[in-house]
What does this fold into?
Amino acid sequence: MTAAEIMPPLHPETSNSILENDVVFSSMPTWGFLTNHALVLLCIARDPGVRLRDIAASVGITERSAFSIVSDLAAAGYIVKEKGGRRNRYRVEAHLPLPELTEGRLAIGDLLALLGGHNAGRPGNGPEPG
It folds into this structure.
């Protein structure tokens, strides 16, 4: 299963429209609440074996941008890259606090669980390796 199947593209240009009485209403705004870093982290939490090209397609960014964001997240300690043959797997460090909150009351895993509608990013919750 690809990241695009797990999470439909989130790029504003892929927004859906609703036709009602010959008037087209946009069902999605042209802006978003989440940064590309948050969207990439969400892709990884949903599928720890996701490929960079699938992350890029899902978020609506280039592969180079996806690589840069994954590198940023790894450098900050929010994900750990684990090499498995020719593919990378990622582990989200769900216990780490959100960088915006100095008091550290909300962990990355809490946010991912809220956004994913399940325990995304929590240890032991994700597709089985293989």
